[in-house]
Model the fold of this input.
Amino acid sequence: SSYGVLDIGKCKEGKPVYISLPHFLHASPDVSEPIEGLHPNEDEHRTYLDVEPITGFTLQFAKRLQVNILVKPARKIEALKNLKRPYIVPILWLNETGTIGDEKAEMFKTQVTGKIKLLGMVEMALLGIGVVM
Done:
């Protein structure tokens, strides 16, 4: 069975619309192999979110999505009458990325990381005082 594509036709009044990762990254071969010119690449086509683990602050992200349609053989349409079977065909792909800027990174470093380091020093000082007592 096919994987790596999501049928969103019910959200689009029954139109044969599918979404996937660009270039059918991680899709089953029966979806990607019939389409020429695809070059799936993990670095260029994956979706990710890099989050600072202590604060949950987003450092960078990439949201990538491909919109596809299902094309079926049709005897009355010249371009489609010789198709052997239905194909999912890419129409476009979207790439939205963001990275924390230098100014925000510096603010994050001084205000957040600095306080975390200060907290660690206070913890050690309290531990030292506790040992002395």
In short: The first helix runs from residue 29 to 32. The CA atoms of residues 26 and 41 lie 10 Å apart. The mean pLDDT is 89. Residues 101-133 form one domain.
